[in-house]
Amino acid sequence: MATNRDVLAMLSELITLTTLEEESPQSFKVRAYENAKLAIEAHGDDVTELKVGELTKIKGVGKATASKIRELVDTGSVDKVDKLREKYPPGFVELTRIPGIGPKTLKLVRSELGVEDVDGLRAAIAEEKLRTLPGLGETSEAKIGKAIDRLGLSGKDRRTPIADAMPLAERLVADLRDVAGVVDVAYCGSLRRMSETIGDIDITVSSKKPAKVMAAVVAHPEVDDLVVNGETKTSFLTRTGLQVDVRVVEPAQFGAATLYFTGSKAHNIALRQRALDRNMTLNEYGLIDTSDETLEGDARPVVASKTEEEIYSALDLAFIAPPMREGQGEVDAAAGDSMPELIQRRHIHADLHYHTARSGDGRSSVEDMVKVAEDNGYDFLAITDHGVDLAINGSTAEEMLEHRDHISRVQKDHPNMLLMWGCELNIGASGGLDYDDDFRALFDYTVASVHSHYDQKPNVQTDRLVAAISDPTVNSIGHLSGRYIGRRPGIEFDVDAVLDALLHFDVALEVNGALQRLDAASDVVRRAVDRGVKLVINTDSHHTSELGRMEYGVQTAQRGWAPRDLVINTWDRADFLTWVEGRPHRT
Ligand code: DGT
Ligand code: CA
Ligand code: CA
Ligand code: ZN
Fold this sequence. Notes:
Radius of gyration: 26 Å
CATH topology of the largest domain: TIM Barrel
Number of strands: 17
Distance between the termini: 60 Å
CATH class of the largest domain: Alpha Beta
Bound molecules: 2'-deoxyguanosine-5'-triphosphate, calcium ion, zinc ion
Shape: globular
CATH superfamily of the largest domain: Metal-dependent hydrolases
Number of domains: 5
Strand order of the largest sheet: 11-12-13-14-15-16-17
Helix content: 40-55%
CATH architecture of the largest domain: Alpha-Beta Barrel
């Protein structure tokens, strides 16, 4: 049975494939599918029950798209998608991830050079053939080659960006929860640890009826090819070649199994050593007492196995959040009293990087964005639409002043919330910011971020960031590197120098929860935490459907060992305002 999630996945695929077919992301058809996707996201309610005529009543959904949605719901597949899939197999589609090579060039590369996938493109570059195509030269050939290397797109060690793996894992978990006899389901492995890229997806299911679970997995629409088809384990490949391992365990052993399959390997080894030191063994079935050597196998007492919490506790450890389980000293920290109060989702009650339709790329009204924020439990909000320098997405000073009035009007309807009129300033090539100094100083709060000039030398980028950080109108730095994981490497800079500047000027470092970004990266967060740099975890939402990113941001901060008290959007509103007003430009 298709769900909204399936419909959106189908439209996403249609957008990618049609971009290739029409040789442009701006083509009429691509725009139509994009609009339909946004409309269905915004619609929120189940669309799978709707007839074509009812679907087209949703603003943004045209007749052609509506029929495709019906076709998916009624037959489980869409003819047009199947045809395009045949023409553009996954290996070819993967080429679209390489920056600097658009659909027109891809078509040429295919017809002129016979390139069908990333390895083929790499070979063409090695043979210096790419430079012979119209519109390309030696420089772009070298750039594309470098991008392939940096993205790790080639060879058997290729990994999938978390933004591609997570929606699939969440969908599988949701579908498996609905299978009869299933008690619990969790994705484990590197995904649960919030690694930026994923080798394969590991899912653990708790049920006394493994055959039912395995049958449901084998029949799942995401299965393209079965690799293992056992009684308690099924492994399959999706169309894009991503492997998924699903294991079924006894409900009484679910904790031990999720602990084991979450890893990391280094974390498991440290835990097992601690068990051995206490005359116990730890494996995927449980923590077992081995002190009585006359007992063997199942006769030995199980100390804990049902939940991870019980196992950590039986090892005299505080619970260790999955993102911290990397074998980087977390077991020692959990054994002593040195563990800080780790940041949790429930501590967050504000979002401080938040867009509305005032931004060219914002898709929901101020009213709607504020309403979902309040529904989400927030009590303050910085509305940070783009500054004027971000070309089509930015707003002039005049527009920003009108926007301020608009926000004040909306404020009246939300007496329990504080709405701040903010701005996402654009950090120019050498660190310059939007508007003039006096105008910038009017904003209640600002986040400054990099949106261009990714290829400058590291020393230039460092100076650029430090210039922005030292500006008295800047309260925080957004998505520090500007990377898109697996697609665009971020800017390179001297991390220590930038963190020192953040500390010195008392500017907060953002942990951006968008899965494509997760920026600052967790290793940078950990270095910031060691220094005492303040943090802010944001969704950077451009639509009412994006608030769930906060959870990913929190988990990334946990991966960087962030304590609650360094994260400014956990603070009381009064403490937060005191900090903001303490900036030099407010005096
Ligand atoms: P990935 O898939 O490469 O992104 O990384 P993981 O961490 O998900 O690794 P994976 O899928 O090979 O295995 C999942 C977890 O299972 C891993 O984090 C720890 C556990 N595990 C797998 N193989 C071993 C092993 O040989 N020894 C131990 N101690 N644990 C293992
Ligand atoms: Ca894995
Ligand atoms: Ca695995
Ligand atoms: Zn933004």
